[in-house]
Specification:
117 residues; 434 Repressor (Amino-terminal Domain); 0% strand
Length: 117
């Protein structure tokens, strides 16, 4: 049985929040989001939170935001298309040490695409 990615984020947030001993109110306050919004995410009434909200929640919970999205890293072989992509990124001025920040955006876009399937 396949679980939609969008159904995972709320459950992941709730599970990690409870393991950390945080109430809904505490997490919402520390993440600077409304309690009702957080509750809607956890109850899957809002299955499309912004990347900024996911990052705020992940920071408070002390986990990588991909953990909340339920995504996992896959191994890919490096071929010419990947090398070309890296070259293009360099050409537009993206530095290697900045890739981590852009990676968050890529993961979020991938998660959003997969949940819409």
């Amino acid at each position: 049985m396949m679980v939609k990615v969008s159904n995972v984020i709320g459950k992941n947030i709730q599970e990690i929040r409870m393991k950390k001993g945080l109430t809904l109110s505490e997490l919402a306050e520390q993440a600077n989001i409304s309690k009702s919004y957080l509750s809607n995410i956890e109850r899957e009434l809002n299955d499309n939170p912004s990347i900024q909200v996911v990052e705020k929640i992940s920071k408070v919970l002390g986990v990588d935001f991909r953990t909340l999205l339920g995504t996992k890293q896959e191994n890919y072989s490096l071929d010419n298309d990947w090398i070309d992509l890296v070259m293009e990124l360099q050409e537009i001025g993206i530095k290697k040490e900045e890739i981590g920040e852009y990676k968050k955006v890529f993961e979020f876009v991938k998660w959003n695409f997969e949940k819409s399937k």
